[in-house]
Specification:
- The protein is an alpha+beta fold.
- A hairpin with a 4-residue loop joins strand 6 and strand 7.
- It has five helices and eight strands.
- The termini are far apart.
- The model has no long low-confidence stretch (mean pLDDT 91).
- InterPro entries: 4Fe4S_Fe-S-bd, 4Fe4S_Fe_S_CS, RnfB_subfamily.
- This is 4Fe-4S dicluster domain-containing protein.
- It holds the Pfam family Fer4_6.
- Keywords: 4Fe-4S, Electron transport, Iron, Iron-sulfur, Metal-binding, Transport.
Length: 159
């Protein structure tokens, strides 16, 4: 069963625990700037939204890489960057329509979410359940249920 990150921005408080957990998992330091997940702060609305690689099926980053440094982890389905192969050309960063592949100046390589090998630190660290790791087939279930409620899934009043 493939799993994926499911993000519910309505539950996000902007605590940055996901960013801290990610940077610690990947670099051994608590440094949100090194995180592969980012919490965007929409100042106008006060909303906080965690965002990271969506592990696209078509994975433009993977197809764009001229040295095949991005491969698919068979166990998790994550598109993973092999640092030893990456030449830091940044073609993948340009090809990603979501901006979730990032160049790291210190290493001269790129980084992106790799789902922590199947146990995403961001989901484990999230205290509100805004980030969960769920069956990939059901990531839209809550949205479908919410729409069903909005569009008439309420008890009718018998007249």
């Amino acid at each position: 069963m493939q799993k994926s990150l499911h993000i519910n921005p309505e539950k996000c408080t902007g605590c940055l625990q996901c960013e801290m957990a990610c940077s610690y998992e990947n670099y051994g330091v608590f440094a949100p700037a090194k995180s592969r997940i980012k919490v965007f702060d929409f100042h106008e609305t006060g909303r906080k939204v965690p965002y990271t690689c969506t592990q696209c099926d078509e994975a433009w980053c993977l197809h764009a890489c001229p040295v095949e440094a991005i491969t698919v982890d068979k166990a998790t389905g994550a598109k993973v960057v092999a640092e030893s192969t990456c030449v830091g050309c940044k073609v993948c960063t340009i090809s990603c329509p979501f901006g979730t592949v990032n160049y790291v100046q210190e290493t001269g390589k790129v980084q992106k979410c790799d789902l922590c090998g199947g146990d995403p630190a961001c989901a484990t660290a999230c205290p509100t359940g805004a980030i969960t790791y769920v069956d990939a087939n059901w990531t839209g279930l809550n949205k479908m249920a919410a729409w069903a409620d909005k569009l008439g899934n309420q008890p009718s009043s018998a007249a």
